[in-house]
Amino acid sequence: MGHATASLASGVQRTDLDFALIGHQESWRSVSDVLAVLRGAERTRLPDAEIMEIFPWIPPRTICNVEVASATGAKARGVYIDCFIPPDHLDSEYVHDNIGRVRAAAACAIKAGARIVSLGGFSSILIEGSFDQLPGASDTIFTTGNTLTVAFVVQGIRKMCAVEGREICKSTLLIIGASGDVGSGCARCLAPFVKRVILCARNARRLRTLAAGLEADGIEVEIATSLEQVQYAADIVICAASVASPSLQLSRIAPEAIVCDAGYPKNLSPRSDMPGARVFFGGLGQIAGGLSFIPDFKGVLNRHPFPDVAHGCLLEGMVLALARRFEPFSQGRGFITRDRVEEIETIADFHGIHLAPLYNAQGPLDTIGTSKTEGHCWSSSGSMAAPGYVSKNFASFSAGSTGLGARLSESEESA
Amino acid sequence: MESLVSLNGSEPSVCNSPLSTASIWQDVLAQAVTGELMAATNYSALATICDNPEEVAEALEHAQGEHGHAAAFVAEGRKIGVDVPSNINAKYWKRIREAFMRSIAERDFIACLIIQEVMLESFAVASYSRVGKVAPGSLGETFAAIASEEEGHIEHALDILRSDRAKAPEPFDEKLYQLHLDIMTTLTEMVAKECRHGQCDLCHGSCVKPSLSEVGLTTAELRGASLQHYLRTLDMLGLPGEVTLQWVTQLPV
């Protein structure tokens, strides 16, 4: 049997696929790495120019089998399907072509017999507002995975606040991309606990709707359709915009602001001038039971400085598969509530899938153990002591018995 | 059969066309005519190993159809004032022809269908479709129409191949992989950015590839579209996408 056909035998049988993950590469560097794995170590890498010419022609398809293990010992098996969207086509100019690619990838997942499909990165953004675009008439369930992404973004903010000793109740929270599913979900989860929230997005109508809902709960809200309109310097920033490349330049933020870049592709421009800002990449979870790929794409498909880390959107499908809950947990735009976030966190936690250790472009944020939480309204729980695995779930947000915890509870009740 | 086209090859002639890009089209047409003539001879050879009279008739009908396509391309050349040469013994085409004839010698009907209908037709349909979009007037229309015709007759072959694969997937996939290494390597070399192993024996002057951009084509586009069509055809046969993607990424550049 030839080299390439040999992998047929080692592949997962099509009839027992628990999940499929649909994704795309965020840079030409990662495209090159994926193709290098496919070509095999014995062959030279394809020249960059060659890759950029050929890559856009590859039809969406499975590129590897995936196995995820629960902390309970259970396992779920699936596939990773790449849309092969060229990294420089992650833009509104190519929206129709990209939706076509996501549809074709979805058809691959259905054909493969996946019971649940998570939509990663831009594929989720493209489809979250129009699930009817996906192929119908199948038993395959689709989820955007956005609820677990929101959970990990919020956990990350909470962890950074605890580590940095920030009083979240005195903070101004800026959410960029607030009208999107992840941005609006973060707003619903965090707004009740901050002093003021600024919602920034291009779509003013959707912003007003979201703001009205929050204001009805007594939350001080400002809306802005561009960063230039933002009036208050934010202490906490969540970047959840759908941008084609890391291009966002934050201007009006407080010195030493906590900044969560939750975008895929990343939102923040490497040229951003944010003196003292504590930037981290958000929305990532780590699988205690392990994650494996056949062929071995470890560190290629999940390019993080820690093992077994993946984006929340992809993890949601794996979590639901491990829990044997084949249901469209996250669909549509604007339906992510704190209850739903808490629910998916609880399921993920049960299977040993937790917030990943925090890191940014410079590397891991080695801050665990240097927490300055005393005297602040956001108390870190004992689980913070375990490097890389933060807290329990969203419930611990408001479950503190201290005065500070009680203040959070009050906020929740008033909400 | 109309004897517009010689199977034995013809000498390229000087281009006297008023169309400024005629000499480029002359070389593009030379590849197309040669491909069609080779397909015609392949189908004729296939008829000799068919057991079923209906299959024999169908193979001969396809052979005739491919001759017709070659004639149509030659006629299009005349319209723009160029004589279109052909040479099925040109370097790349000869290698493909020899591989096909080995399968004929082994009376391997399935291998012949894979070479002709899956591999060669993928390149023909995808390339003709691209050329059809940019070529002027009736030249473009002819390319587009022939692409559509070629696509039409692939379906029946795919039914036969799917049925054969269903009986024994592993040997089928292994056979396809071995043919892929042989035929697809040659085809991708044909549409590589440059001819690394010297002239293709069909261009009437220097290699046409660097000039393709003058008529709105690139080798990258032709190769990309052809490999895309090939991958989709393999998908239709039921081969796992992750495996066929590996095959394609391992082709020479």
Please give a structural write-up:
The complex is a heterodimer of chains A (415) and B (253). Chain A is α/β, with parallel strands linked by helices and 415 residues long. Chain A is built from 11 helices and 17 strands. Helix content of chain A is 31%, strand content 19%. In chain A, strand 6 (172-176), helix 7 and strand 7 form a beta-alpha-beta unit. In chain A, helix 6 packs across helix 7 (181-190) and helix 6 (146-164) crosses helix 9. Chain B is mainly alpha-helical and 253 residues long. Chain B has helices at 22-47, 53-79, 91-105, 109-134, 137-167, 169-190, 219-237, 241-249. The radius of gyration of chain B is 17 Å and the shape is globular. The termini of chain B are far apart. The chains are: A alpha/beta (415), B mainly alpha (253). Chains A and B meet through helix 1, helix 2, helix 3 and strand 2 of A and helix 6, helix 7 and helix 8 of B.
Taking the alpha carbons of the first and last residues of chain B, their distance comes to: 39 Å
The largest inter-chain interface, given as chain pair and residues per side, is: A-B, 29 and 29 residues
Rg of chain A, nearest Å: 21 Å
Largest sheet of chain A: 6 strands, mixed
Oligomeric state? heterodimer
Helix-strand blueprint:
The complex is a heterodimer of chains A (415) and B (253).
Chain A: H1 3-10, E1 19-23, H2 28-39, H3 48-54, E2 61-69, E3 75-82, H4 95-112, E4 116-119, H5 122-127, E5 141-143, H6 146-164, E6 172-176, H7 181-190, E7 196-200, H8 204-215, E8 221-224, E9 234-239, E10 253-261, E11 278-281, E12 284-287, E13 291-294, E14 309-311, H9 312-322, H10 338-350, E15 353-355, E16 359-360, E17 363-364, H11 403-414
Parallel strand pairs in A: 1-3, 1-4, 4-5, 6-7, 6-9, 7-8, 9-10, 10-11
Antiparallel strand pairs in A: 2-3, 2-13, 12-14, 12-15, 16-17
Helix pairs in contact in A: 6-7, 6-9, 6-10
Chain B: H1 22-47, H2 53-79, H3 91-105, H4 109-134, H5 137-167, H6 169-190, H7 219-237, H8 241-249
